[in-house]
């Protein structure tokens, strides 16, 4: 039968099927082929007789994983696969947002071909003018949701967006990702960490990868480690295509291979001056281009 791995702990994989959740181990043949099973994998399993030990632990089904189906996409940090949507989350305050870091998560989503939603969390700490200014940074390219677990703002909108999707929340420590998931999936009771007074960064608390189901039928990853992203695999000529608003204006430049930095007749730079492209996003683009060029030297 076919199912999806929703949790993996200590060599055991918990596979959700139409017949229930099976505790499984992978066949040795998978390991011999160099296949490492990941949470989110769609797999073929065979049921085995329920052992007494498993019955004592309250399990209803045991099985063995025979094979995995082709993956839609794969992330290495954290190790998750088959993701439809990345909810790139940052706190409007406490800690203060670092937009260049936020954009690295967006680049990760763009590279893997996933839908991107930008979530401005802790919206209750900002006034309307501050929220509007942050929203305008991304609204020209992505769906932006303003959320607060204190006031409930944006939670239903987020639930609606997650319906029918396999989604992961990514963002810096302290953004409130686990708290948001607790609000969306109350039975999850995920541990959350306060923001360190010394570093103004969140204390990471999530310990393993798991898929949680929302009331609306969406699936959400609890993803430890999705708090940083490196971009060594992006080529210099590729970067501009990963910023939708820059890509939109790039075709109007004087030169076809314009990188929107110092070239004359650059429509992107003009759009930034006119306010049609966020100056914050353009600064992020230049920062990431510089990083790519620095890495190329080594």
Keywords:
298 residues; alpha/beta; 6-stranded mixed beta sheet; 5-stranded mixed barrel; 9 helices
Can you give a write-up of this model?
28% of the residues lie in helices and 23% in strands. The chain has 298 residues and is of the alpha/beta class. It has a 6-stranded mixed sheet with strand order 10-9-8-11-13-12, sandwiched between helices. A 5-stranded mixed beta barrel has the order 1-2-3-5-4. Strands 6-7 form a two-stranded antiparallel ribbon. Helix 3 (99-111) packs across helix 9. The longest helix is centred in the last third of the chain and has 18 residues, at 279-296. The protein is globular, with a radius of gyration of 21 Å.
Distance between the termini: 48 Å
**Strand coverage percent:** 15-25%
Largest sheet: 6 strands, mixed
The total beta strand count reads 13
Structure class: alpha/beta
Low-pLDDT residue intervals, each spanning 5 or more residues: 190-206
Order of strands, widest sheet: 10-9-8-11-13-12
Total helical segments: 9
Secondary-structure element order, N to C: EEEHEHEEEEHEHEHEHEEHHH
Average pLDDT rating:
88
The amount of helix comes to: 25-40%
Global shape:
globular
Q: Which radius of gyration do the C-alpha atoms yield?
A: 21 Å
Question: What's this model, at a glance?
Answer:
This protein is α/β, with parallel strands linked by helices and 298 residues long.
